[in-house]
Amino acid sequence: MKSCAIVILNYNGEEMLKTFLPSVCMHSIHDIWVVDNLSTDNSLNFLKGNYPQIQQIKLNENFGYAGGYNEGLAKLRGQYDYYILLNSDVEVTARWDSVLINWMQAHPAYVALQPKILSWKEKDSFDYAGAGGGFLDGYGYPYCRGRIWDSIEKDIGSYNDIIDVDWASGACMVVKSSVFHQLQGFDSDFFAHMEEIDLCWRMRKSGWKIGYNGSSVVYHLGGATLDRASSKKMYLNIRNSLSMIFKNETRHRFYRIYAVKYLLEHLAALSFASKGEKEFSKAVLDAYRDFRMKKNSIEKFEPSLEGREEVSRKGKVDLVFWNWKILGKKSFNQL
């Protein structure tokens, strides 16, 4: 098998490919693949005409992020030891992929890894998605070094280290191919958002470690598919978060978390409604309704440890929203 495939998922992303592929081709040493979610723009003709060395996998429908990667990587199964899943709106830097893969090969207990992810628009600041390494609080809310809720830090070199994390960002993450397929990849019911956090949670429950390596750096545009202020993104995040927690926590623990999240997120829905932002209020209510409708069909994840021990959560914050909103702790080192 070859060591690594860089796999970019595309859906109507011709402009993203034009902007970001040059850096990927210039700075990468591994094979590059594009998995296309039945684009209706000129993406594939652009690739064929300008990047004939990039191999394509054409899907017969838009499966979303989760399903698109599952379908595409199934066609690469058995060919590569590692996949680097790279968003189409990411600019990479010299040696980015070799640093990540060399580190993974030297540390076999780790099955996922992310680089430092900075903002493409403001390159001295962290990106929203993943930043300096991802964690989960006690109620399943994700946060990062470099980004607490919507508070973004400048990059001053504080997170140039290598550490264990709870999850690696789907904007740019290495995954060990055998474990990805063993765990049946992403949950395709998620369609988009939170699927990489769910996968990393299942990996940790299965006794594998997740890492962050700040010596590899990429720049992420973000919002290329759904803007962070999108009501659809809010719906997907809330619905998928509930599914993820239900799958991975005990039933007793889930219902304790559910009660707190229900209160906080329905208060948010009331706040949105009072400000006339009815689409966001509706997104919260719809997310809870749709989760309840499908809850009985969601299977609890039962790990196969095979002599390994479950890797505990690294995030030590009980409720990151309380720290951020009430206590005013806006940076990671204040938590």
TrEMBL record:
<protein>
    <submittedName>
        <fullName>Glycosyltransferase family 2 protein</fullName>
    </submittedName>
</protein>
<comment type="similarity">
    <text>Belongs to the glycosyltransferase 2 family.</text>
</comment>
<keyword id="KW-0328">Glycosyltransferase</keyword>
<keyword id="KW-0808">Transferase</keyword>
<dbReference type="InterPro" id="IPR029044">
    <property type="entry name" value="Nucleotide-diphossugar_trans"/>
</dbReference>
<dbReference type="InterPro" id="IPR001173">
    <property type="entry name" value="Glyco_trans_2-like"/>
</dbReference>
<feature type="domain" description="Glycosyltransferase 2-like">
    <location>
        <begin position="6"/>
        <end position="113"/>
    </location>
</feature>
<dbReference type="GO" id="GO:0016757">
    <property type="term" value="F:glycosyltransferase activity"/>
</dbReference>
<dbReference type="Pfam" id="PF00535">
    <property type="entry name" value="Glycos_transf_2"/>
</dbReference>
